Amino acid sequence: MFGFGKSQKKKQEAVRKGGEKFQKLAGEIKQIERTTDEEALKLYAHFKQALFGDNEEDAPGRLDFVGQAKHNAWLELKGTAPESAEAEYLQFGFDLLAKYRPEAAEEFAAQYKEEEPKAE
After folding, report:
1. Count of the separate structural domains present in the chain
2. pLDDT tier at 20 (50, 70, 90 boundaries)?
3. Percent of the chain with pLDDT over 70
4. Is 43 contained in some domain?
5. What is the pTM of this model?
């Protein structure tokens, strides 16, 4: 009726696009109680770019300062490949996790430790 269903469905499909590691880290990051505004904007922009690609949304109203900051942060990544944005999100997100929740970062790293190539 109001279009909410389509937006929610699009968001759910996009989140499914992110790999298990991406989704797990996003969940861990949500548990960080406070980051700086700059850190939060960088995470937000890379998350959106990784899942939705370039920002095609209308700019928020002039008095929506938070919405404008988020919109502009995402716009700055225009042209960045979603794969690159995801890689940056994973690296920066892990760095934040290590900074604010070191025990969770250790657990995450142990769970997703990449196997070292075996010598032949």
Report:
1. 1
2. confident
3. 79
4. yes
5. 0.77
